[in-house]
Specification:
Among the domains are: about 50 residues; about 140 residues, Ribonuclease H-like superfamily/Ribonuclease H (Nucleotidyltransferase, domain 5, 2-Layer Sandwich), CATH 3.30.420.10. It has about 500 residues and is of the alpha/beta class. Helix content is about 60%, strand content about 5%. α7 packs across α8, α9 crosses α12 and α11 runs antiparallel to α12. α8 links the parallel β4 and β5.
């Protein structure tokens, strides 16, 4: 190729050559003559013919009548990337900000109505797509409510995969409204192993009305969160009592000092003796409360400190004794917590009882040492990341597998639903509501995003909730924005 010229041909010459190459009646050997005359290769001439044919087709192809949409090419270079990185943090995702982003990044203008119409259209497509992506594995249901103003929204997530099964707003939060939502989930083919709620009567009644046969449990997360609030309140009271005692000591030092300290003298509202007694009372109250709360929390753990599965009857007796002691602490909030704990105790113990009954046949011929060994390795499974085949002899592998599976499916909190709500709240604050299109798009994004850390790292929620192929987030967006391109699901 070194004998061919390197200086480009003029535009008029290229046009003449392209027309000559497109002529179907050209004489045989004409391409070789042109190659010699213009000192170019035959391959280059044939490529020129293909480019000319494509250009003519693009220009002469029939188009729809009327004004044609404007289009322009954007070069995604380093400058554009830096501009995008700079602009995106300024935009919050509202309709007005979408309008600004189109102008700042793409140089196009669209009305608010056009943007809202597009979002509504894409939201319907995303909703249909979300309904088609059904988890094939049984889910550990977590149902909770979140409010946007006075509008209730029902959230249902899978406690195992963190897949978002439902996020929708409604005008009421009663049995009929939430019952229809649960019925829709069941009709889609979603199977619930259990359902954990925070005690909302509408959710409980709705699940029952929908015919959900899955066991129901009261949420341990909310129960213990109430205890944490009491702990924080007692800590503040203890700190304030210690501060008052310090001020009382400083006041006494000033009164007995030979020389008066410059400035206003310190004054304490209580005497030193009263301050000392208040500190002792506050410290004793805090220590007794935290000890009782730890006792209750430990009794609700599936694995005892010795490594065996907890005995549900013994756990019940321990918790009842702890609540009785809480009643004797003469604090209204602690007494209310103890009363609430006693009322919810049957549903709080239900997951422990199911776990104990499911593993009872295996534990009959299992020594406490082997049981502790199995549970210990399960507790630290994310640290050693070793399969059962490398940890246990062949004789213990089936038993260890059954233990691990039962412990993996042990579920009694709606903390994942609360985590999703923490992620959702900024969107509710921006849009001041949860329109259907926003709920559908957020569900699409959440279920297809890939976890970047933690035990689910490298997987999306839908990947963990199903045993079949799940498209990536980019492929899912292509599927709803270009419906003619069908994905192999």
């Amino acid at each position: 190729m070194s004998e061919y010229r390197t200086d480009p041909l003029s535009l008029s010459t290229r046009i003449d050559l392209a027309l000559e190459m497109l002529n179907p009646n050209r004489e045989w050997g004409r391409v070789s003559e042109l190659s010699t005359a213009y000192n170019v290769s035959r391959t280059w001439l044939y490529k020129l013919r293909e480019s000319g044919e494509a250009a003519l087709k693009a220009i002469l192809s029939p188009v729809s009548p009327g004004p044609q949409p404007k289009s322009h090419v954007i070069e995604v270079d380093e400058t554009f990337i830096r501009r995008t990185i700079t602009v995106l943090p300024m935009l919050r995702g509202s309709v007005r900000d979408i309008q600004r982003g189109l102008g700042l990044l793409l140089g196009v203008e669209r009305s608010v109505g056009f943007i809202q119409g597009t979002l509504a259209e894409v939201g319907e497509l995303a909703s249909a797509y979300n309904e088609s992506m059904v988890p094939t594995l049984p889910v550990l249901g977590e149902a909770d409510e979140i409010f946007c103003g006075d509008q209730p929204c029902l959230t249902v997530v899978d406690g195992a995969s963190f897949a978002l099964l439902n996020i929708s707003a409604a005008d009421a939060r009663d049995e009929t409204t939430w019952g229809l939502k649960f019925l829709e989930l069941l009709e889609r083919g979603i199977t619930f192993d259990d359902l954990v709620t925070d005690g909302a009567l509408g959710i409980q009644a709705g699940a029952k009305a929908a015919g959900m046969n899955a066991p129901h449990s009261y949420d341990l997360f909310h129960q213990m969160q109430n205890g944490t609030k009491i702990t924080q309140r007692l800590e503040r009271e203890m700190d304030q009592a210690m501060t008052d005692r310090d001020v009382a000591w400083q006041e006494l030092d000033e009164q007995t000092a030979p020389a008066r300290r410059p400035g206003r003298p310190r004054k304490c509202t209580v005497t030193l003796e009263v301050a000392d007694q208040t500190v002792l009372t506050a410290v004793d109250l805090h220590e007794n409360w935290t000890w009782l709360l730890r006792t209750v929390r430990q009794a609700l753990e599936p694995i005892s400190p010795t490594g065996q599965l907890v005995n549900t009857d013994a756990a019940q007796q321990t918790i009842l004794a702890a609540t009785q002691l809480m009643m004797e602490m003469n604090r209204d909030e602690i007494a209310h917590f103890a009363t609430q704990l006693q009322q919810n105790l049957p549903t709080l113990l239900a997951p422990l009882r199911r776990l104990e009954l499911s593993l009872a046949p295996l534990r009959q011929n299992l020594s406490p040492e082997y049981e502790a060994f199995i549970t210990h390795l399960w507790t630290y499974r994310h640290d050693h990341q070793l399969p059962i085949e490398q940890l246990f002899p062949p004789s213990l592998q089936p038993m260890a597998l059954a233990f691990w599976h039962a412990l993996d499916r042990f579920h009694r909190a709606s903390s994942l639903a609360e985590s999703f709500h923490a992620w959702l709240r900024p969107f509710l604050a921006i849009h001041r509501s949860l329109p259907d299109w926003l709920a559908a798009l957020l569900q699409l994004f959440w279920n297809h995003r890939t976890f970047s850390r933690g035990k689910r790292s490298g997987h999306s929620p839908l990947e963990l909730a199903t045993d079949s192929y799940v498209p990536s987030l980019a492929d899912a967006l292509d599927a709803i924005l270009q419906p003619q391109q069908q994905l192999a699901l």
